[in-house]
Amino acid sequence: MLSDQKVRLIFGLKLKQLRHDRNLSLKELAEVCGISVSYLNEIEKGKKYPKSEKIVALAHALEVPYDEMVSLKLGKTLAPVNELLNSEILNELPLDVFGVNLENLVEIISNAPIKVSAFISTLISIARNYEMRVELFLHATLRSYQELHDNYFEELEEAAERFTTEFGLPVTHAPIPVERLKELLKGQYNYQIDEAQLGKYTELQDIRSVFVQKKSGNKLLLNLHLTEAQAAFQLAKEIGYNYLHLTERSNTQSWVRAETFEQVLNNFKASYFAGALFLNRTRIQQDFKNFIASETWSGAVLLQLIEQYNVSTDTFLYRLTSIAPRFLGLNELFFMRMSYDKTSEHFDVTKELHLPNLHNPHSNEINEHYCRRWVGVAILTELNKHSQNGNPPADLVVKAQRALYLSSGKEYFCISIARNPHATQSAISSVTIGFLINKDFMNKVRFWNDMNVPVVLVSATCERCKLNDCKERSAPPYVLEKQVRQSRMEARLKEVIAQTQ
């Protein structure tokens, strides 16, 4: 069922289209039907819906039946707009987050209905062809929201610091004990914590926690196989939901299904709060500043730093995406989490962020093979081979790489860390943070040209790579070859036209 707002918008679009079809100005239509110009303008913008007698007057002036005026169907020209107004994507599109309201959007559409409708139709078609689920759209929208704010949110930073002060949590390098977090959830927010139930079901082995709301008090089902750092993060996140008064939420972490943008946004806010709780902004900026002041790159030193905070490598590197741009002037960066399924041998990007704009590498949803030279991919391959060869499982592997992109010539300093999962999981994952190597980076990161960090030529995907002697190639460069054939054809066509003139 359409909302009143969308009914007003459809009526306004229809009125404006009919008026233009009859070459009437607002003033001319106002004179014929006895309605003021300002009120007609409000109707066409979808801000007002006229009473029945005014609709009768409009129908008479425009020479259309009353039923056609009030019908929710739009003509062929505006059919894609009607589809958009009825789509799930628009229902979940958080326009207010970006300072846009639906009336503004529809007014833009109504000013050039044929061109904009064609554009909308194209977007809907692309979404269908690439099976773009609403959930993917919601997470992409969240990333855009984060990128607009440089992934730094002062109110969440301050909330974490207030909580630390109120409940006497450590502000030095001493980690927050898991038991203390459990005590806070139980005592302050009336939680029960169950670490046994999830382990009974193999289908739920990848779910980190499940929130169950009960009349007698909230219950948190916690995965028994989580590391201490992972368990602490889930508990801190649960505190974040309560302390920030975030009521619209998903029941699970990791995601099973996101139903609304509010759920996705609140999950992010609770996660950000947890990260700020463990990694105080003042402490981590100073610690990372000291780390990048060294002349020599050392993965071991980085792991020691992470261990001091007792957080996961994912949490630590992701936290840097908020701190490095804001406090250290390292503004051009990306974060990426890669997953490798050992049963299907498939690589997938499960989380990413780009500041301030899209960088390489980035995810693709068209089943192309990610470049195996990326450090985030190579480190997973190495970790998998290590365990396949009968070696004892490596707990953590850390590597650095200077990735030089063949297509753009841009170079990134990438730090990647991979960890073996718990025994019940079939996938392993890596997290990578990459900084664009520019003047700012070279001035602030002393080890950027350490000779022990390899410089590697990389591409986006194997299908688009022009390296002829790549030993890591997993697929032929058919997309690149198609582009080359197209360029040759266009060049030859220009030649033929020039010779014929």
Could you describe the 3D structure shown?
The protein is α+β, with helices and mostly antiparallel strands and about 500 residues long. It is about 50% helix and about 15% strand. The strands form two sheets. It has a six-stranded mixed beta sheet with strand order 6-5-9-8-7-10, with helices on both faces. It is globular and about 80 Å long. About 30% of the residues are buried.
Which features does this protein show?
434 Repressor (Amino-terminal Domain); 10 strands; 6-stranded mixed beta sheet; 20 helices; Arc Repressor Mutant, subunit A; alpha+beta; single chain
What's the gist of this structure?
This protein is of the alpha+beta class and 501 residues long.
Reported for the largest beta sheet, the result is: 6 strands, mixed
SS class = alpha+beta
Percent in strands:
5-15%
Radius of gyration: 28 Å
The total domain count is 3
- Helix and strand sequence: HHHHHHHHHHHHEEEHEHHHHEEHEEEHEH
